[in-house]
Design goal:
The protein has about 425 residues and is of the alpha+beta class. The chain has 14 helices and 23 strands. The longest helix has 21 residues. The structure holds adenosine-5'-triphosphate and magnesium ion.
Length: about 425
């Protein structure tokens, strides 16, 4: 993409109301614009990041055996009346009346609707187990939208739902999602720690919040220092015993949010106990027959008996992740995108748009990168070199490839790694080889 044809409204100064680094940088780097309180337009560069995150989430859901579908944002209140949640949900739900006087709402989540849909289509034990998911916008009329997209009112969520015949099956589905979550966040360059979370009136220990550490996080979290080490999340999720063993090993080291602290265990930990602030990027939850019972969902068992399926639900904050990743990865000059979620891999800078040789070399490299399928943003504008560098640093693409008149004379271009700052001069051919 040529920057001269793009829409990248970068600014020097962030608006005064942005408090945390990610919010400031997202506005300054032209990723989003707020259009109403807690509601954002995703500008081209931000949209690309959102799509990258969405793809990683999708790949790991598919890998876990979940099946993608798409439910609407606007829901009939009937689904919620049937589960008793319409009155219970409170003012976070955006309620809408259509011209016929029918009650609609902008979905804050989808348990009620998915249960009704699955109930109407699944009749036999052979239809289970199943995991279904969608990636769809949600609306919650948060009392205090803040921190940019991290606590918005409209936000993109991946929500998955599992249906099983018994508790053992429910645990397997839960464990598969548990692994998918660890893998998903790791692929984005994040270390997310699973922390036991409240299960509410249903009880049990099957609820975890996945929290990444960041000073600006809204929750206070406590964890064993083993969580600072890198971990491998490779396990055959179809091998039930291996899967359970893996999840047990991942929950062995203490990790708890403020609400779930265990004073006895913490006392034992001594100085291996660490404290930080954290951002919730995902939440998984097994809640049994709460919705299937309320909605009268049953399937026939092998002997003709009727079984009420057990459910879990599994959310990832896709749009929140854009902010969370920036919180975890930025410096004084701007964003530092981990490569898997970067909007483009390479920022190609022509230092002199009025110099024929620079233009020719830059155009040639641009064409070759594009032809090789490398995602490249080409700053071909007639601007000062300093401003171009500042913009590239701010938007944080992993590689900066710089073409200038002095280098051209010596037959070299300059390649800089945004994360490490390492810079080298090399021939255009070698640069291409490195980037392709
Ligand atoms: P929180 O405790 O942060 O309010 P929640 O527990 O209400 O979140 P869930 O219902 O568990 O949220 O939703 C699943 C995921 O959706 C959360 O883990 C989070 O990543 C994301 N999410 C929830 N609320 C918002 C929001 N207002 N803006 C952006 N993302 C959100
Ligand atoms: Mg939650």
């Amino acid at each position: 993409m040529r920057l001269s044809r793009y829409f990248l409204p970068v600014t020097k100064e962030p608006p005064a109301d942005a408090q945390v680094a990610s919010h400031k940088l997202m506005l300054r780097a032209g990723l989003v614009r707020q259009t109403s309180a807690g509601i954002y337009a995703w500008l081209p560069l931000g949209h690309r990041v959102l799509k990258k995150i969405e793809s990683i989430v999708r790949e790991e859901q598919d890998r876990a055996g979940a099946v993608e579908m798409l439910m609407p944002t606007i829901q009939s209140a009937e689904y919620w009346r049937d589960t008793g949640r319409y009155e219970a949900y409170g003012p976070e739900m955006l309620r809408i009346e259509d011209r016929q006087g029918r009650d609609l709402l902008y979905g804050p989540t989808n348990e009620d609707m998915i249960t009704a849909l699955f109930r109407d289509g699944a009749k036999s034990y052979r239809d289970l187990p199943r995991m279904l998911y969608h990636i769809q916008w949600k609306f919650r009329d948060e009392i205090r939208p803040r921190f940019g997209v991290m606590r918005g009112r409209e936000f993109l969520m991946k929500d998955a739902y599992s249906f099983d015949l018994d508790e053992a099956g429910g645990r397997i589905s839960y464990n598969k999602q548990f692994v998918a979550y660890l893998r998903t966040f790791k692929r984005m360059g994040l270390r997310a720690i699973p922390m036991q979370a409240d299960t509410g009136p249903i009880g049990g220990d099957l609820s975890h919040e996945f929290i990444i550490l960041a000073d600006s996080g809204e929750s206070e979290v406590f964890f064993h220092k083993n969580w600072e080490q890198d971990r491998s999340y490779d396990v055959d999720v179809e091998d039930t015993a291996a899967l359970q063993g893996f999840v047990d090993s991942m929950t062995a080291d203490y990790a708890a949010t403020d609400e779930k602290r265990d004073e006895e265990r913490e006392a034992e930990l001594g100085d291996t106990l660490l404290k930080s602030r954290g951002i919730e990027v995902g939440h998984i939850f097994f809640f049994g027959d709460k919705y299937t019972k309320a909605l009268g969902m049953q399937v026939s068992g092998p002997g003709g008996d009727m079984i009420t399926p057990l459910m879990g639900s599994y959310g990832v904050g896709v749009s929140r992740l854009v902010g969370a990743i920036i919180e975890a990865s930025h410096d004084d000059n701007g964003i530092v995108w981990p490569e898997p979620v970067a909007p483009y891999k390479v920022g190609l800078i022509n230092m002199r748009a009025d110099d024929e040789a620079c233009v020719a070399t830059s155009d040639d490299l641009y064409a070759k990168l594009e032809a090789a399928g490398v995602e490249v943003l080409y700053d071909d504008r007639d601007e000062r070199g300093g401003a171009k560098f500042a913009t590239m640093d701010l938007i944080g693409l992993p590689w900066q490839l710089v073409i200038g008149p002095r280098g051209i004379k010596n037959g070299v271009v300059e390649l800089t790694n945004r994360a490490t700052g390492e810079r080298e001069e090399l021939s255009a051919e070698s640069a291409l080889e490195k980037l392709v």
